[in-house]
Each structure stands twice: as structure tokens, then as C-alpha cells.
Amino acid sequence: MNDQLTGLIQDGKTNQAIEMVRGTKNYHESEEFVFVVLREEKSMPDLVEAALEAFLGTRENRHEQHGYWVHSLSHFTHILWKRRMDGWIKRFNRVSFMGANELRDPNCSDRLVDDFVRYAKFDDEPADFHLTAENLRWMKKIPARIKTHRFDTEKEFLLWKLRQPAPLCWDNDAQTELVDLSEFQNNIEQLQKLGADISEFNETKMDLLAKQLSKLESELPSAQDRKRERLEKGIQKTREALSKIN
Q: Which domain holds residue 163?
């Protein structure tokens, strides 16, 4: 089916492609169609709209089924953010959070919140994307960025980010979260380009790693089997990163 859709798009048969994506049977198939449509450079705007509209139509307003749909949705929302398809992001967020609250089914809705934290620009207002305390009442801890409003400048936003707790990322090898030095360094470089004073962050990179190392080492004595192995890998990687900046 995906090859057929790809062929229709590449041959310029948009009407037939639209008919195909509208005939989707479930969200699994619709998700695959969305990926094809967003991937192909020859996809016309009306085809993109049809594919996303069809996916929206596959949602079932039932507990568990809603959460499964949001899980499927979360697989391609990063593409919508990178393309800044704000209208669709807001629409999907509204439906997802409504189901999370009304059906008590927040499965994977946190991924949509994380998308905003990861991709939003300095002047994006969380509430515009339906990220409010009322809509997110199912979350145990709402991210700090969601509690802020839009920032006046990118410089102000980057300074705020660097003053937050250490950014973490999942390390597949260690199977645990480690300090995300790449994001930290990227923020520093962007601030430098903006001519900002970054002297307050000179020792921050070492401090971040030292705190991470201390946390991992504190968990080691009580850890068993696989968790202990993961912690040991995390400790090793953190020590290596520290040695490179000492």
C-alpha cells in the first residue's frame, strides 16, 4: 500500500492519492500514509491536509483506544514541529488532551508536551498550543517551560534554559539518562553569536557532569543485576566526559 501511494504521488496523481489516504481503515495504516505523504517532496498541500485529516478521523473516543491513537500520533508530531505546521499541532494537542482528561486516558500525551519543550521557539506561547494547567491536570509534574509564557528575545530564552536543571538525554548503551552536553553546548554557542555574556556558565559543564556522576554512584550500592550494569556504564561514560574537560 505504501509503495502504491508513493507511486501515485511521484506520478502526480494527487486526486487518486487523496482518495487512497481517505480510505484508510485504522490509525496504524493512516500513520504509515502520513509518513509517506510528509516524506515525498511531490506531495501537494491538499494531499498533506487530506492525510492528516484522515488520521484525525481514525481516533475512537474510548478509553485505551484514545491512548493508542495518541501513541501513533506521537510518532510523527516531530515532523509537524520541524515544518511548523502550527494549525495541525494545535488541533492534535486539543483533541489529545481532551481525551486524556475526559476519558482518563493520558497515554503518550506527555510526548506532545515534550515536543513543545524540545521544538518551540522563544516567542511561542504554551497556551496557544493548549498547554495549560487545566488541560494538563493528568501530569504529575508539568515542565518548567510550560509554566512560562513567551519570551521577549531569543537571548532571554537561552539564558533561561541554561539556568534550568541539567538537560538529560537517553543513552541507549547505558540504558539510562545522562547529561546532554550537546544541547548545553549548542545553547552556549547560540548565546555567543548573540553577543551575550556567558561567563556565569564557565564552570557549569563540569558541575553538571559532577552532579550526574554523584547521582549515579549513589544509586549503585542498592542496584542489582541489569540496573547495576546500566549504572556502571553510565558512570564510566560520565567519568570519560569529565576527563575530557579537566
A: 152-246
